[in-house]
Every structure is written in C-alpha cells, then in structure tokens.
Design goal:
Strand content: 15-25%
Radius of gyration: 16 Å
Helix content: 40-55%
Strand order of the largest sheet: 1-2-4-3
Shape: globular
Structural class: alpha+beta
Number of helices: 5
Largest sheet: 4 strands, mixed
C-alpha cells in the first residue's frame, strides 16, 4: 500500500530544502524532519506570476512525505524495504490527520533493524513525532 502520488516527496531539491530548513524531532527508531508550508503570498504585478503562484499553491495543498533509509540500517535491501513498507503503512493511517502543505522526511535509525521493530511501534513513534512537530490538524 503505497502513498498516493500527491503525497510523495520525490525531488532532490525538496529533500534538500527539508534537511536545510526543517525542524527535527528525534525518537528511538525514527527521526522526523518537517518543513512548514509557505503561507505568504507576494503581490504580483503581472498575470504570469499569478498563474505560477496558483500552481504553487495547488502543488503545496497536500502534505508530501519522503522516507530515507540508509545502508547503515541494514546492508540487506530486503530488510530496508520491509521497514519502508511498514512505515508507509503507518503513514497511510495517519495521512487524514495531517495538516496540509507540510513537507516531511522520515529518517530510519539503525536501531529499527537491530530491535526487530514492528508496525505498531512505528505507528506509535510516528504519532509522537508528528505531535511533537505540531503537524496534526488543529496544531498549526
């Protein structure tokens, strides 16, 4: 069960922006990097910039999430992919509760593979990290 395409963080530029400017929240298995949505709209002088602002606001309407898992977690791709699938399933459950426009990167720590962490633990830790970063609806 993959995340919807509108909710995937894919480009290198987006990942770099989240890592450079985003806030950090640490857990025992995961680290969350979160970048708040851009709320300011600048007044424009011509219609060309208005159309680009409209597409930018439509592009920012959904929360986009990326998952980063290093080979330090496990050398075996099977293990990394299993962890990634578990995190994606947990995020899929939390997606309706998230505020719009955020860019999130979930970073998996090596302790996740060592301790044989399972989906309920990922779900619980993701809820804690998202609440700590105030990403849930009504917190921003």
């Amino acid at each position: 069960m993959a995340l919807p395409k509108a909710n995937r963080l894919k480009s290198r530029k987006d990942f770099q922006a989240v890592f450079r400017e985003g806030i950090r929240c640490h857990g025992s298995y995961l680290t969350l990097r979160a970048l708040k949505p851009l709320c300011s709209t600048k007044p424009s002088l011509n219609t060309a910039t208005q159309t680009t602002q409209a597409t930018d606001s439509a592009h920012l309407a959904s929360t986009r999430i990326g998952i980063s898992i290093s080979t330090k977690v496990s050398k075996r791709a099977v293990v990394r992919n299993r962890i990634k699938r578990q995190i994606t399933a947990a995020l899929h459950n939390l997606l309706p509760k998230l505020s719009q426009g955020w860019r999130l990167v979930v970073i998996v720590k090596p302790t996740a593979a060592e301790s044989k962490c399972v989906s309920p633990q990922f779900l619980q830790e993701l809820e804690q990290l998202l609440a700590q970063a105030e990403v849930f609806d009504g917190n921003s």
